[in-house]
Amino acid sequence: MMTELLAGLNPQQQEAVTTGDGPVLVLAGPGSGKTRVLTHRVAYLIREVGVYPGSVMAVTFTNKAANEMRSRVESLLESRLTGVQLGTFHAICARLLRRESQHTPYTADFLIYDRDDQLAVIKQAMAEAEVNSSKMRPGRVLGAISAAKNELITPEKFSAPTYFGEVVKRVYPRYQEILVANNALDFDDLLMQMVFLLQNNDEVRERYQRYYEYLLVDEFQDTNMAQYQLVLLLSKPQNNVFAVGDEDQGIYAFRGADYRNVMHFRRDFPDAKVILLEQNYRSTQVVLDVARAVISKNTQRTPKALFTERGGGVRVTLYEAYDEREEGTFIVERIEDLRREHGYDYKDFAVMYRTNAQSRAIEDACVAMNLPYRLVGGVGFYKRREIKDLLAYLRLINNANDTVSFTRIVNVPKRGIGKKSIADFRKWVAKNNFTQELALSVIAEGGEFPLSGKAARSMTEFTKNIFAWRKQADDGDLTLLLDDIVARTGFNLYLHDISDSENQTIERSENVRELRGLLKEYEGETLGEFLAEIALVADVDEIDDNDDKVTLLTLHSAKGLEFPVVFISGVEDGLLPHIRSFDDSEGMAEERRLMYVGVTRAMDELYLSYTFRRAMYNATGGPNEPSRFLEDIPAHLTKDIPPMLAQKQNQRAFADEISWETDWDAPRLGQRMRDDAHAATPKPEPKPTLFKSNQRVYHGIFGEGIVIESKRVDDDDEEVVVSFAEGGIKRLMASFAKLTILDG
DNA sequence: GGGCCGTCGCTTTTT
DNA sequence: GCGACGGCCC
Question: How far apart are CA A189 and CA A578, in angstroms?
Fold first, then answer.
């Protein structure tokens, strides 16, 4: 029923769902129901327009979003959804490249290398190109190559007029050769090779252009050039492309995404119908107003009139903590309070942060107070050492040409094949022009090779095992295969050797058991299929919404999600906005968008917290400045304004006055811009105060603390704001409180 | 060849 | 505070 598909949709959403053929651009604010629009449109196309499901391609930002979309469309259609090409750009490209592998330099069972694998290849390539990897950081070189690939620049076309660029130019071709020889693609290759396949092979391009009649792309603001080219290529000739995005939520510029692709779309499809979704169904008015206050300072954007019918709402809480430990405790305690008082479940809460490192303090607080939580990202399951080792076994068994996996495990667990032996083996392979697979089979079958003694015996046994395991993999029982690998390599003993404690050994064994369980889930599929599927799993994909746990995640991972109560921690200058963006206005704009994304995840309540000092590595940092973004939030939207933020606002007002007066005389824009950028010029005092910022002081009851500020109230008294390590932040009159200056 | 120990650099953010 | 890496000694 048509009415059923449109029930509960507002007029703009209905229009988006039912618009006929041709390009459509949906500019969708946060919480405006874009997921609903996408799912309803897919269902509408299939059921009302009669489109064949196989001719629909729908691109989502995460696998999780793809799964959700699938199940929602299925419940709308009341039937299984088969045939629709649904997934992330990366997953879809991997699927198509496997299908068309005969037209690519790879075979259908190619591997997908993650960042660690890539770094291993980069190091090998740098060594072979005779680049000193201690001088030239492999990570930087990899970054440059990745950026080039996102711009569809091949090794031959690569050029950069700097010394660093010259180095990259030498490494890039070698890097790419190794990948091809290993039958492996990196994440960027998935997109780039797909674009090249479509560009260079008329038959394939025309076949897919004909086949995929309807293209839907979510999170369009986070597409990069390669992805945009894919959209342009695949949408022809019908131009039935339905792009949904929000320039204000573009947060992936660092991996080549360009939010201006939203505008490019209007340029490249001038007849595109543009639909605005401005009604927010998620957040309270207060939350939306805070979001607007933050984002409206960005200049390069289309202003939107976001509105909600959820008028009012609880004011936002700003919280100033002494350090990250106190911040963690505050958050955890508040979660327990809200749960008790308002009946929230744990899964209704999210704690967000700018950098993964911040999660540790929050986790510690959760553990200390026995609060169930789930950590998204960080050191994920697939990044654990023991899991990477075992996966390397599985990968090498699946593809004996995988040099990265071979190097990782040829001597893991230790079997007496050291650096020298590996180097000799490599030389031998190169001299004879062998593939790695051929070389390994020569050794397994007892042929001549240059090692001797224990190394030779171990190598022979290792290669024999690899081929025996391959047979076992072909027989289909992957859990049995894993058991055999663990048994024959003495893996459990190895787990003990690499662990610092008995607990760690147990933890690692549990991880191995978890991997075994995972393999069981893939019963009936081949080893290749298993490896292909786990390669593109993102951390967010793992979130199980039924688990009643608090979610800890980065602001980046939070995109597309929503929670009744959101805590954003570490809202400090240097963290959010991150210090690496200070000197770059594009970067600063992106930090604002990041904050905007975080704020707009909140449905009911929002907490923004910052610390006075935050431990970095092992040293205690600080004093920190509250984020400049906090200054943009009007006071009527917040509960109390904590002392450091209040002080900063006063300073800003004072500095603005000064520079306004200066403008009166002679314009000093430079000065003014510096003030705006740092906003923390020290406030001149009419009479010097006894206590000064950053002094260490001692109080009889509260103990040791740090002076945040001191204000003279009259000639012989001053008001001192002190942050005590134990007692929190206190406002004291110098004449009453017996404060001793410890130093400073 | 393996193990131990000191140094260094590190953190944005991720498919 | 931690992991990667290089140097040194057995």
Answer: 29
Regions of chain A with pLDDT less than 50:
660-685
Flag residues 254-293 of A with CB < 7 Å from strand B.
254-255
pTM of structure: 0.81
* Integer-rounded Cα radius of gyration of chain A: 29
Which nucleotide is nearest, taking the CA of residue A584 and each C1'? B12
Helix (H, G, I), strand (E, B) or coil at A560: coil
Say how far apart CA A356 and CA A110 lie, in whole Å: 31
**Inter-residue contact A536 to A94 (CB < 8 Å):** yes
A357 contact partners, CB below 8 Å, separation of at least 6? none
| The total number of residues written for chain A in this structure | 744
Asked whether strand B has any atom less than 7 Å from the CB of A431, the reply is: no
Q: Is A601 a catalytic residue?
A: yes
Shortest-distance nucleotide from A137 CA to C1': B9
Residue A538 CB lies within 7 Å of the nucleic strand B: yes
CB A35 within 8 A of CB A55: no
Q: Which residues in window 575-634 of A are less than 7 A from strand C by Cβ?
A: 617-618
DSSP state string for A632-697: GS-GGGBSPPPHHHHHHHHHHHHHHHHHHHHHHHS--HHHHHHHHHH--PPPP-SS--SS-TT-EE
State how far the Cα of A625 lies from the Cα of A629, in Å rounded to an integer. Answer: 11
Model pLDDT for residues A173-201, shown as the tens digit of each residue: 999 999 999 999 999 999 999 999 999 99
Question: What Å value separates CA A504 and C1' B5?
Answer: 22
Q: Which nucleotide is nearest to A120 (CA to C1')?
A: C4
* Å from the A139 CA to the B11 C1': 13
